[in-house]
UniProtKB/TrEMBL annotation:
One of its GO terms (biological process) is proteolysis. InterPro entries: Peptidase_S8/S53_dom, Peptidase_S8/S53_dom_sf, Peptidase_S8_Asp-AS, Peptidase_S8_His-AS, Peptidase_S8_Ser-AS, Peptidase_S8_subtilisin-like, Peptidase_S8_subtilisin-rel. Residues 143-445 form the Peptidase S8/S53 domain. Keywords: Hydrolase, Protease, Serine protease, Signal. It comes from the Bacteria. This is Subtilisin family serine protease.
């Protein structure tokens, strides 16, 4: 579906790694007076680490990590012309491209409302909508299934995760190099990852909330920085970590920064697009199904016309990452009424799930309009967004992986689609096209947790 980017530029640059790099540039003095940025750099997959290390040093950079399986290096440099030396189709820094006006946290998607830890399951209308409570009575998931939560960290001390978090499979990826120490993957400034994790696997213990697959294990993989950004190097690290640790599925409730779209035919953008495409493909090849939120821009992501985050021209060569990649399950959101949430993007869609909507208010006693889940510090609260819809899908995939232990990512995706409940387009809604079970708002339909454990 998506054309693969080559490393051959329009100027005819040679594919890196097929020849020694010692002659890549004349010797020069490195200007280290600029701001230090982190870059992703493309190589031919399989190029040895020492080759990448030597070239980066020659071009005034320092190697942070190298992933030879996919030919992606993570490097830092204070040289203002570091990317120019390597070429605009080989090196890119997301942080360097962030307008200063957007340096703010975007991880919180709605106001939080802390609630007591008493049994709140009656307020989980989202679980009723996808039949998760019925599914829990049949199968709560297998302990052999590991779900990767690529997010802002998960509070492992929360009572709901007493048996869920697997420290051995958790890591921090903010630098582009995996750090398995607990301090690297715990949440610091954001509740987002902990909320996502509760939807997937909060314990079925009669207190607080219950997740869709409360018996599976969770791996916290921190890719969201303290200021709320997810840069290409963190995403690459997260996907490769997931593949090496053979997770069954990962949840990705974010888009890669600094913009909403990356264009595979434009300098800089093309580097990030290809690096993340390779990382996702690597994870898929090692048995990981990648699930991602479609976005909250209320627009058609299959036909981009404007990047609402970063000012640059976009067209159909551009995609949001990771949701716009071929190997990724893209998820839209519905509210209490079961119709598309007002903020939810649409277009490239696999399935839909509850994300909440302030315009679809549940009746008294059924819970808040935004799904209720866990917050750091043993608390609970509500958030809205496709970020909340995506983990509902991941929870269902975790049940599918539990009941179909030998299923490949493609087979799990097929089962997810086949067992979803079709939803027809609303009447007189020109932006929704296609029949029930295959349209631009709901994809193949609303995910069904009960079907995942009974069919």
């Amino acid at each position: 579906m998506r054309r693969l980017l080559t490393l051959l530029t329009a100027a005819g640059a040679a594919l890196v790694g097929l020849a020694p790099v010692a002659s890549a540039a004349p010797e020069h003095h490195c200007d280290a007076t600029g701001t230090t940025y982190t870059y992703v750099v493309l190589y031919t997959p399989g190029v040895p680490r020492f080759v990448a290390d030597a070239e980066l040093r020659l071009d005034c950079g320092s190697l942070v990590e190298y992933y030879p399986e996919i030919g992606v290096a993570v490097a830092t440099s204070a040289s203002p012309d570091f990317a120019d030396r390597l070429g605009p189709y080989r090196a890119y820094s997301g942080r360097k491209d962030v307008p200063t006006s957007t340096l703010r946290s975007r991880s919180q998607e709605s106001a939080l409302a802390a609630v007591p830890a008493a049994d709140r399951s009656a307020e989980q209308w989202d679980m009723d909508l996808i039949k998760a409570k019925q599914a829990n009575k049949v199968n709560e998931g297998s302990r052999r299934v590991v779900v990767g939560v690529l997010d802002s960290g998960v509070d492992a001390t929360h009572p709901e995760f007493a048996k869920a978090i697997d420290p051995a499979d958790s890591a921090g990826c903010l630098t582009g190099k995996a750090d398995p120490s607990p301090d690297a993957w715990k949440p610091t400034t954001s509740s987002h990852g902990t909320h996502v994790a509760g939807t997937i696997a909060a314990a079925d213990d009669g207190n607080g909330v219950t997740g869709i697959a409360p018996n599976v294990r969770l791996a916290a993989v921190k890719v969201v920085s303290d200021d709320g950004f997810i840069f290409p190097e963190a995403a690459v690290c997260g996907f490769v970590w997931a593949g090496k640790h053979h997770f069954a599925v990962t949840n990705n409730s974010y888009f890669v920064d600094p913009g909403f779209y990356f264009c595979r035919n434009k300098p800089g953008d093309a580097v990030a697009y290809e690096a993340i495409r390779r990382a996702v493909a690597y994870a898929t090849g090692r048995g990981v199904l990648t699930v991602a939120a479609a976005g909250n821009e209320a627009m058609d992501i299959a036909n981009p016309t404007k990047d609402t985050v970063r000012a640059h021209p976009v067209d159909r060569n551009c995609a949001t990452l990771p949701a716009g990649l071929p190997d990724v399950v893209s998820v839209t959101a519905v509210g209490y009424a079961g119709t598309k949430s007002s903020y939810s993007d649409w277009g490239k869609v696999d399935v839909t799930a509850p994300g909440g909507d302030g315009r679809q208010v549940p009746p008294a006693g059924s819970g808040p309009a935004c799904p209720l889940s866990t917050l750091p510090g043993g608390a609970y609260g509500s958030m809205c967004g496709t970020s909340m819809a995506s983990p509902h899908v991941v929870g269902v995939v975790a049940l599918l992986a539990s009941t179909h232990p030998w299923a490949s990512p493609a087979q799990l995706r097929g089962l997810l689609r086949a067992e979803a409940t079709p939803i027809a387009c609303p009447a007189a809604t020109p932006t929704c096209t296609g029949p029930a079970g295959d349209n631009t708002y709901y994809g193949h339909g609303l995910v069904d947790a009960l079907a995942a454990v009974t069919r």
